[in-house]
Design brief:
The complex is a heterodimer of chains A (about 325) and B (about 325).
Chain A lengths: L2 E14 L2 E14 L3 E5 L6 H8 L7 E10 L2 E2 L5 H7 L4 E4 L13 H12 L4 H14 L16 H13 L5 E5 L7 H18 L2 E5 L3 H7 L2 E6 L2 E7 H6 L4 H8 L47 E4 L2 E3 L8
Parallel strand pairs in A: 3-8, 3-9, 6-7, 7-8
Antiparallel strand pairs in A: 1-2, 1-4, 4-5, 9-10, 10-12, 11-12
Chain B lengths: L2 E13 L10 E13 L4 E5 L6 H9 L6 E6 L2 E2 H15 E4 L14 H10 L6 H14 L4 H4 L9 H15 L3 E5 L7 H16 L3 E6 L2 H7 L2 E6 L2 E7 H6 L4 H9 L22 H4 L17 H5 L5 E3 L2 E3 L5
Parallel strand pairs in B: 3-8, 3-9, 6-7, 7-8
Antiparallel strand pairs in B: 1-2, 1-4, 4-5, 9-10, 10-12, 11-12
Helix pairs in contact in B: 3-6, 4-6, 6-7
Classes of the chains: A alpha/beta (about 325), B alpha/beta (about 325).
């Protein structure tokens, strides 16, 4: 597998009157070609900020403090607006969180889709429309949809329109931020399968942000678990589920209610604030396996096995 | 035995937009729904997808909407009478928790105000000291530390804390019936279990709960009984173990097979069947004579088109399907 995108020590801060909130505090990550990378973690851990940081979509008061995003040998964060525009959508596209509500309610689907295509290429309207139709059919929507307004479609179908929009220009990577949240189970399944097919049909690499571990179990190849603005563990889906190394990952897995085991255990305590992360390991106030060292030294990410990276003092002193 | 809550042949229709002359104007949100809840505290789950009429049921029970036909009785007295004659008493006994913990608070007031208002309106305490100790007791009952919570503004609390704060409000009132409309869908997985455990504790103190959700996992986690609703009709109901372990209706089976199993070795192998007629879903509802699930059903037969299948007792629970 070849690396397609690399994030190096990315830091995204938000200016507040109490000082900078470190919403993303040094994240390094590699995305391999043709995989589905799952990004998991509870709300407020920086999942969405990571995606926004990579795509340079952080809005004030947020700003990218430092770090590098390498794509095709170039550091994306050094490109200026126009240069980045050529890559965004065409090579790296994005399905924003709650995107089913981001469609303009008074414009037909056809115009919304062609608008994006035309502004990023020099196609004619007719060509753009054909591309839009092709993209819609590849996510399983009938062509009549283009003549409709967003309110005529159900939430799940609107979400698939957004998936179709993101793949119109055959990008290399799609960042999907909570693509199935707020849909009912049947629609969730359908949309997850649609995302899984992007990889098989078009060879598109997908980075999917989702808080629910069971969705990752269904489609992701690798999972990257985040906690308090940092990555705590990366590993293949099978490894993460069968043998979670970090105590936080183990806690996340135990918190999933399912029809097979009729109990679920929650992780005690609440997530810390980005204005004031705890010293040492950020998970130590909630950790059941806390040691003295955890309060003082923040464990670095360390490769403990092949393709298995974890940041915890339990696995070598760091 | 007397029922706490009784819904009998409830039909609720909504009129469509006035300018849309081309189509029939009436949409059936609920079509002949009947169920009841025991006096004995139980948790009843009402499961269905978006647009199936779950929230309409919740509004009818609270008396926020009147049914088009049919009757809702609380302790044997119609809800409309409760609202007209004894609204305060009814509000004290029947409480609700809404889905979105971010929009139920007034951002200008400290959170304490919610609990103080409740105590004031329902004369729950004789003096300030008693009120304060009641507030602290209720917060502790839902696992919040009064010192950390009181005096704060809503934006300073997390989603899980806000939702539990709403539970504290319910706890102060000690209602007989709690209607919870998707209370955990905005919460993280790790916080859900905490919230649901409190609902279980409430049951022990004598609070029945109608738990409205689209998530079978959490329904299975806390409920005693379950009802599956689709397009305004109840398709299957019975004890939670019976329905989940032995689903009879094709729709229930579809719901259960759509739940992602948290095990990467057991991925889905089948595809979801998409109903293209769902495109016209909004207008389709009023014309259906037969089974509401006909268009999406794998086992659809000719008889299904003719009339809606009646509820039948099969293998320990009730199901409305011509297969049985």
């Amino acid at each position: 597998m070849e690396e397609i995108l690399e994030v190096e020590d990315l830091k995204v801060y938000f200016r507040t009157i109490y000082g900078d909130a470190k919403s993303l505090d040094g994240v390094s990550l590699k995305v391999y070609e043709g995989e589905i990378l799952g990004i998991a973690g509870e709300s407020g851990c920086g999942k969405s900020t990571l995606v926004e940081g990579v795509l340079k979509l952080v809005k004030p008061p947020g700003y990218i403090h430092s770090g590098r995003v390498i794509y095709n040998g170039k550091n994306l964060l050094e490109l200026d607006g126009d240069e980045f525009r050529k890559i965004r959508w065409k090579e790296i596209s994005y399905i924003p969180q709650g995107s089913m509500n981001s469609l303009n309610p008074v414009i037909k689907i056809e115009e919304q889709m062609t608008d994006g295509i035309i502004s990023h290429t020099d196609m004619t309207y007719q060509e753009a429309k054909e591309i839009a139709l092709e993209a819609l059919s590849s996510v399983g929507l009938p062509p009549d949809v283009v003549q409709m307004f967003p309110h005529e479609l159900s939430g799940g179908m609107r979400q698939r329109v957004c998936i179709a929009m993101s793949i119109c220009l055959k990008p290399k990577i799609v960042f999907a931020d909570e693509p199935v949240t707020a849909l009912d189970v049947v629609m969730q399944k359908l949309n997850l399968q649609t995302i899984g097919e992007l990889k098989e049909k078009f060879g598109i690499t997908v980075a999917m942000v989702a808080h629910d571990m069971s969705w990752h179990a269904e489609v992701s190849d690798r999972i990257c678990v985040m906690y308090a603005a940092k990555i705590v563990e990366i590993g293949s889906t099978i490894d993460i589920f069968t043998n979670p190394l970090h105590p936080y990952t183990a806690g996340l897995l135990e918190a999933i209610p399912s029809l097979e085991k009729r109990f679920a255990k929650s992780i005690p305590g609440i997530a810390p604030s980005p204005l004031n992360w705890p010293n040492g390991c950020r998970f130590h106030p909630r950790c059941s396996k806390k040691m003295d060292i955890c309060e003082e030294i923040d464990p670095p990410l360390k490769e403990v096995e092949r393709n298995r990276i974890v940041a915890c003092h339990l696995y070598g002193g760091g | 035995m007397e029922n706490l809550l009784e819904l009998k042949n409830i039909v609720k229709t909504f009129t469509r937009a006035a300018f849309d002359f081309t189509r029939e104007k009436v949409v059936y949100a609920l079509n002949d729904v009947s169920f009841d809840m025991d006096v004995e505290p139980k948790i009843l789950a009402l499961v269905g997808e978006s647009g199936s009429g779950k929230t309409t049921i919740c509004k009818l029970i609270l008396g926020l909407e009147e049914p088009t036909s049919g009757e809702i009785r609380y302790k044997g007295i119609p809800v409309s009478d409760w609202i007209k004659k004894n609204q305060k008493e009814y509000r004290k006994e029947v409480q609700i928790i809404f889905q979105d913990p971010f929009e139920t608070f007034n951002p200008f007031y400290r959170v304490d105000r919610i609990l103080w208002t409740v105590i004031e309106k329902f004369n729950l305490a004789k003096n300030d000291n008693e009120a304060r100790s009641k507030i602290e007791e209720s917060l502790e009952a839902v696992g919040l530390r009064p010192k950390e919570i009181l005096g704060r503004y809503p934006h300073q609390l997390s989603g899980g804390e806000r939702q539990r704060f709403m539970l504290a409000r319910v706890y102060i009132l000690r209602p007989k019936l709690l209607v919870a409309d998707e209370p955990v869908s905005m919460l993280d997985a790790s916080l859900r279990a905490v919230f649901l455990d409190h609902l279980k504790d409430f049951k022990k103190t004598g609070i029945s709960c109608l738990y409205i959700t689209h998530d079978l996992n959490t329904a299975y986690y806390i409920s005693d009984y379950i009802m599956i609703i689709y397009a305004g009709k109840i398709l299957e109901r019975g004890s939670i173990e019976g329905v989940i372990k032995n689903p009879l209706h094709p729709y229930t089976r579809m719901l259960i097979s759509s739940i992602p199993v948290p095990d990467p070795t057991k991925r889905w192998t089948d595809r979801v069947r998409i109903d293209i007629t769902q495109l016209q879903r909004v207008s389709g509802r009023e014309t259906i004579k037969g089974c509401v699930f006909y268009n999406r059903c794998d086992y659809a037969m000719d008889t299904c088109k003719g009339s809606f299948p009646p509820m039948k007792m099969v293998e320990g629970h009730e199901v409305s399907c011509f297969l049985y």
